[in-house]
Amino acid sequence: MTDTNLQKYDGVAMLLHWVTAVLMIVMIFFGEDLMGEGEEAGEAAGAAVSTFLPSIHVSIGVTILVLTVLRLLWRVMNPPPPYPATMKPWEVTVSKVTHLLFYVLMIGLPLTGWLAFPEFLRETPAMSGVTVFGLFPLPVAPAFGEFGGEVHEIGSNAAMVLVILHVLAALKHQFIDHDTILRRMSPH
Question: What is the spatial distance between Cα 113 and Cα 128, in angstroms, rounded to a whole number?
C-alpha cells in the first residue's frame, strides 16, 4: 500500500459512502414529495397507481438502512484513515460527532419511517399496497400514533442540515484549508 492509500478510504468504503450519500440526498430533499405524490395519485387514480412513489420511498429507506449496517461493519474491519495533521482538535471532534450523527440518522430515519407507517395507513388506507422493492409488502410496524412520524420529520430536517454542513465543511477544507480531507473519499 502506498502512502497515499494509507490516507484514503478504500474502494468499498468510498462506494458505500457515495451510494448512501446520493440516496440520502434524494430522500431528504424529495422523500416527502414521493409520499405526497402517492397520496395525490391515490386520490385521483386508485390504489395501484398511488403506491408506486411511496414504494420507491420505502425501498430507498430500506436500502439506506442496509448500506449503513454494511458501512458500519466495514468500518469496524477497516478503520478510516487518519485525519490530516493540520486539522485543529475541535475540527476533528466536530467531524467525529457529525459522522456519529449521520450513522444515527441513517439507521434511525428508516426505522422511524417504518414506525410512522401505521398512522400513515390509518390516514391514507390506499397506501396499504406499498411494497419493498416491489417484492413484498412493508412489514407491519407497532403503532405509535403520530410519534413515529414526528420523530421521522425531525430526523429528516436534522439530516438536511447535517448534509448541508457536511458539504460546506468539505468545501472549506478543499478550497480554504487546502488539506487532504476531500481526497480521502475521492477515487482519484
Answer: 15
Q: Which residues pair with 75 in a beta bridge?
A: none
**Amino acid code (one letter) for 56:** I
Residues 27, 34: Cα–Cα separation, whole Å: 9
pTM: 0.90
Q: CA–CA separation, 65 vs 115, rounded Å?
A: 14
Chain centroid to Cα 41, Å, comes to 26
The one-letter amino acid code at 43 reads: E
Ordered structural domains, the chain, with CATH: 3-184 (1.20.950)
Query: Per-residue pLDDT tens for 46-75?
Result: 544 578 899 999 999 999 999 999 999 999
- Above pLDDT 90, what percent of the chain? 71
**CA gyration radius for the chain?**
19
Q: How far is Cα 24 from Cα 77, in angstroms, rounded to an integer?
A: 24
